Amino acid sequence: MRRREFLASPFALLAVGATVDYPSVDPGRALEFPRDFGSHPSFRNEWWYITAWVKATNGPDLGIQITFFRNRPGVAETNPSRFAPRQLLFAHAAIADARESRLRHDQRAAREGFGLAEAAENTTQVLIGDWSLALVGGVYVARITARDFGFDLSFTPTQEILFQGDAGFSRKGPHPRQSSYYYSQPQLAVSGRMTVGGTDLRVTGIGWLDHEWSSEALAPEAVGWDWTGLNLNDGGSLMAFRMRERAGRTYWAGGTRRMADGAVHRFESSEIRFTAQRTWRSPRTGFEYPVSMVLNAGGIEYVLQPLMEDQELDSRASTATVYWEGAVRAMQADREVGRGYLELTGYGQPLRL
Fold it and tell me: Is residue 74 part of a domain?
């Protein structure tokens, strides 16, 4: 069994190493749809990331996360075998329920092929076994069957695509090559069914989707990032991130604010500040995370308060990382002005993509 698990694990293949010419991310390239809803297999890394706050009738607030990752490891690319690991797929799913002591989560990993794991190029259609995310008639449909929970949810866009950075060219560092193609779809209307601990729930809520792809590994000066995507109560949205150096200083930052009237402001790196307000130490890994943060975006402050402290996701069985991915409320003067997610990576050990 141990040998079979090793051979089945796509991450075991990453230790082989390879030299491959990945395409660059270039400014001025206009994103094209529906093509750019799909996979970009020549690039090194890619992910489709959905988060949401949902609620059943007379039930508690729940946070959900669904992420599909694609990686081109650059090994065995000339091998004609159908088993050659030219593309690797990973997926994470989680539920945050404040009534429980910790996050419910599960993960999948596979080599692409054989109809068991695939990422279509012409639209969003990613699957690993019975886990899938697909764009059907303009609506994202996620179906997840995990160990002790499941999703069958629809995410309907209510606004135009929000391009991050300069028309989708998102800088992640001072060098232009440290960039990604990146767009978001905030204010998604969520509806559908969830199964939690054997109980079926009909839920509705508000979600957020990110789709991002790039060829660069994390800058050597950076150990991880802080990221948040917030659906604001007035119909606006806010994305902000910072790449962190080992000493905790900001290496690079950025973000985008869409106003309620549709106007968009792109933040310069100097306009974004994350400041820890309260930390939490994981009893399992010993990693310490700033789970409550003060975000200053262009001179406007938001206090990000977690739905619950323990939202650590251990994905060492798939992407070999441990990170904190949590549902948060955005507060101003003790008043809730929005809800979203906060992602904290590289706090226990440097993140390596």
Answer: yes
Rounded to 5 degrees, φ, ψ at 167 are 60, 35
Whether 27 maps to a domain, the answer reads: no
Looking at residue 350, its pLDDT comes to 65
Give residue 92's identity as a one-letter amino acid code. H
| pTM of the full structure | 0.91
Split into its structural domains, the chain has a count of 1
Indicate the residue type of 334: D
Euclidean distance between CA atoms 107 and 130, whole angstroms: 12
Residue type for position 275? T
Domain of residue 194 covers 2-14+34-344
Q: How far apart are CA 289 and CA 303, in angstroms?
A: 16
Q: What φ, ψ does residue 8 adopt, rounded to 5°?
A: -80, -20
Q: What is the pLDDT of residues 54-67, one digit of tens each?
A: 999 888 999 999 99
CATH of residue 294? 2.40.370.10
Assigned domain for 195 exists: yes
**Residue 332 pLDDT > 50:** yes
- On whether the CB atoms of residues 211 and 48 are closer than 8 A, the answer is yes
pLDDT of residue 314: 81
Identify any residues that bridge with 313 across adjacent strands, giving them in sequence order: 323
